[in-house]
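Ligand-bound model needed. 2-acetamido-2-deoxy-beta-D-glucopyranose.
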Amino acid sequence: MAGELTGKHWWLVGLVFLVAATAGVGVGVPLALKGDPNQAFEQRLETARKILSEAPLIDGHNDLPWNIRSFIHNQLEKINLNESLKTVEPWSVSNWSHTDIPRLHEGKVGGQFWVAYTPCDSQYLNSVQLTLEQIDLIKRILVKYKQYMELVTKSEDIMKVFRTGKIASLIGIEGGHGISNSLGALRMMYELGVRYLTLTHTCHTPWATASPADEPGSGLEHVGLNEFGKKVVLEMNRLGMMVDLSHVSTQTMRDALATSKAPVIFSHSSARHLCNNARNVPDDILRQVRINRGIVMVSFFADHIACGQEANVSHVAAHINHVRDIAGIDHVGIGADFDGINKTPQGLEDVSKYPALLAELLRDPKWNVRDLRKLAGENIIRVFGEVEKVRDDLQGKMTPIEEDLHPEYLKGKTNCTYIFD
Ligand SMILES: *[C@@H]1O[C@H](CO)[C@@H](O)[C@H](O)[C@H]1NC(C)=O
Ligand SMILES: *[C@@H]1O[C@H](CO)[C@@H](O)[C@H](O)[C@H]1NC(C)=O
Ligand SMILES: *[C@@H]1O[C@H](CO)[C@@H](O)[C@H](O)[C@H]1NC(C)=O
Ligand SMILES: *[C@@H]1O[C@H](CO)[C@@H](O)[C@H](O)[C@H]1NC(C)=O
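Prediction:
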C-alpha cells in the first residue's frame, strides 16, 4: 500500500524525530494552539513556560545597572547576583529592586537589554563619562556571570546564545545626553556594543524634546528634532543602532519616524489610548509604527498602565492587546522597565513573573502560540535584523556624518566644555 510505513521506514521516522529533537524543532508547543478561557491558571502557566523554553523572552529595558550604581557605587564585589536579593539589604527593602539571576531563570528570561542610564542632571557635565562607566559595569557583570549571560551585538547571535541556555544580553543607552551632542561619541558607543539609544530621558537635549514637551503650556508641543537631531537618527541608521523613542515628545516621535530609514523601537512605553500619559504612545503613532515596521515594547509601570490606580497583570495585557490591535501582532513586545520603576502590577512583581503575563494572554483565544512567540522575542529580533539590513544597504552610500551641533543651541551651557575656535 502506498505510503504505508514498513519497519525500515519507522526507523527513518525515528531518526528524523531524533534529529528534530536535537535541533530543538518540531517537537514543541504547536504554533496553532490557542488561548482557552476555561483552562486553569496553572495549566496556562505551564504552557507559557514551555513556550519560553523554545522561544526567547527578550525584555527591552532593565535598569539593574543603575541600581548597582546608586546602591553600591558599581562595586560588584558587594553584590551576588547568583542569589536572591529578596532577603539582602538594601535590595530587599527597596521598591526599585526586581532582578537577580535566580529570578531571571524562574521568569524564563532569554534576552535582556541592560540599560546604561545617567541622570538628566549630568547633562552638560560628565554625562558621557557616566554613560561609559555604566557600559563598563554591564560588561563587568557579563564577565563575572558569564555562565549565565553573554553579550550580544548582532541579531543573529541572540538565538545562538539563547540555545546555550544563557541570557542574550544587549546594551542600550537611555537618554541622548549620554552622547553629549557628539556623533563621534555616538559612533564610539556603537563600537562598545551599544545597540539602542533612547533619544531623550525626561530632559530635552539641544536636538530633541522629551515627553514633558507634551504637557499643556510647555510651549514646545510642536518642537521635536532639529536638524542635528535628524542627523543623529540618520547616523544611527548608518551604524545599525536602534532608535528608541520611549520618553521622547510626540513631535520627536513624528520627526524620528519621518527621518529614520530603519524601523524604530519603543523600549518601554504603553498605550496612551488606555492611559493618557505623555510616556505612552498615541494611536496615530502606533499606526505609523506599523508602517515603519517598528515595535512598541509595553512597560509595566503602574502609573503608565493604570494611570495611578492599583495595577495588575490584566492591565498589562490590555495595553499589549491595544498595541496589537492598532500596530499589529508583528509590532508589539515587552519592556517591563524592572529596576527602573517602583510600582509594579500585582502578579508581575519582578523578573520571575513573565510567564504569568503569557498565561494571562492565554485566556484569550485571539492569542495563539505563534503570536506569543512574536510578542515575547521574535518581533524584536526581526526589528534588530531589519535595522542591520538598513545599515548594510547604506554601506558605501553614506559616510560618517561630520557636522557639529550649531553653537547657538549651547548658549549658556558650555561652562564645562572646552570650546574650539
Ligand atoms: C554562581 O554560581 C555558580 C554555580 O553555583 C558558580 O559556578 C559561579 O562561580 C557563581 N558565580 C559567581 C560570580 O558567584
Ligand atoms: C514601597 O511600596 C509600598 C506599596 O506601594 C509602599 O507601601 C511603601 O511605602 C513603599 N516603600 C518605600 C520605601 O517607598
Ligand atoms: C485586575 O483588576 C481588575 C480590576 O481593576 C479586575 O477586574 C481583574 O480581574 C484583575 N485581574 C486579575 C488577573 O486579577
Ligand atoms: C556658568 O558660569 C556662569 C558665570 O561664571 C555662572 O553664572 C553660571 O551659573 C554657570 N552655569 C552653570 C550651568 O554652571
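Residues 415 surround 2-acetamido-2-deoxy-beta-D-glucopyranose (ligand 4) (CB under 6 Å).
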